[in-house]
Structures are given as C-alpha cells and as structure tokens.
Amino acid sequence: MNYKFFLIPFFLICTISHVQSQTSTDSIQIVRKNGLKFSQHGKILKPAELLTIMKPNSEAYTIMKKAKGSRDIGTIIGSVGGFMVGWSIGGLIGKGEIDTKLLIAGGALVIASIPFGSSYNSNATKAVNIYNDGLSNPMNGGAFFEIHTSENGIGLKVSF
Q: How far apart are CA 58 and CA 91, in angstroms?
C-alpha cells in the first residue's frame, strides 16, 4: 500500500518532465515546394512564427532575426520596384506611352531585391538546422522514461 504513494508521484514526474521538454518531434521541417517554406506539426510557419519558436535557442534566434530582416528589406524593395514596373506598363496600356525611366528604375529595384531573398533562404535554413540540432533527443544521451500500457498492465519503459 505504501509503495503506491511513491510510485504515483514518480510516474507523474516522469510524465510531466517529458511533456514540458522539447523533443525531436518539435523539429521544424524544411519544405522545398514552390519556394522555401518551413513547417512544424504539418502547419506552414511564417517568419515571425519561426522567430517566436526559436527564441529559446539564442544562436538560431539571432540568425533567424537576421534572415527575417533581409526578407523584410527585400520585400519592400521588390514591392516598390514591382509597383514602378506595373505603373509604367499601365501607362503603356492606358495612354499608349511608356515611361522608360520608371520602368528601368523599377526593374533595377526588382533585381536588387533578389539577393535579399537569397540571403533569407540561406540564413533561415541555417537557423532551422541549428534549432533542430539543439532539440533534445532521447537517444542522444541520458535516460528517457515513458509509461506504456499492454495487455499485462502498465509499465515503465526506460530508453538510453
């Protein structure tokens, strides 16, 4: 009877410590389909969500913050350039004349935004890899306790 008072808290502590830790199932997957995307638990993550997730890992967070800054700058420059190109093409359609200076400047801004997107891709991938490497994996040292049930009853599984 006394052993139940010791076993129940022991099982609860093992279960709670497993639930609160980050494990390899919390890893972020890199999806290279129609561009570069990142997902966790089947959900596509935005750069701001990646930053929030990576906050506990300072190295990955710093690199992801740099990547997000590059992406933001590239998005602004590319959007302004795209607007300028669209405005000049709209002038061609509407008035029959094209503003070549505006078209060239807009095209230059669009081209100038490409390295920022490339920088985002490489830094974000690097940050995700660092984050995933920092997650605790029960097979990489230490003991890992799990409670399992079977037809014979409840048992404690210890993995090393």
A: 49
Supply 64's token pair.
């992801």
Mean per-residue pLDDT, 24-30: 75
Residue listed under structure tokens 């994996």: 137
* Spatial separation of the C-alpha atoms in residues 155 and 144, rounded to whole Å: 14
Specify whether the CB–CB gap between 124 and 56 falls below 8 A: no
Burial class (CB in 10 A: 0-12, 13-18, 19+), 43: exposed
| Token pair 């078209």 in the structure block, residue | 103
- For residue 60, with 0-12 CB atoms within 10 Å meaning exposed, 13-18 middle and 19 or more buried, which class applies? buried
**What phi, psi does 153 have (nearest 5°)?**
135, -155
* Strand-by-strand arrangement of the 43-45 sheet: 29-32, 36-40, 43-45
Instruction: Kindly report, residue by residue over 68-102, the tens digit of the pLDDT.
Output: 999 999 999 999 999 999 999 998 898 888 889 99
112-149 burial: b if 16+ Cβ within 10 Å, else e: ebeebbebbbebbbbbbebbbeebeebeeeeebbeeee
Q: Identify residue 9 by its one-letter amino acid code.
A: P
Q: Domain segments of the chain: what residues?
A: 14-72+115-159
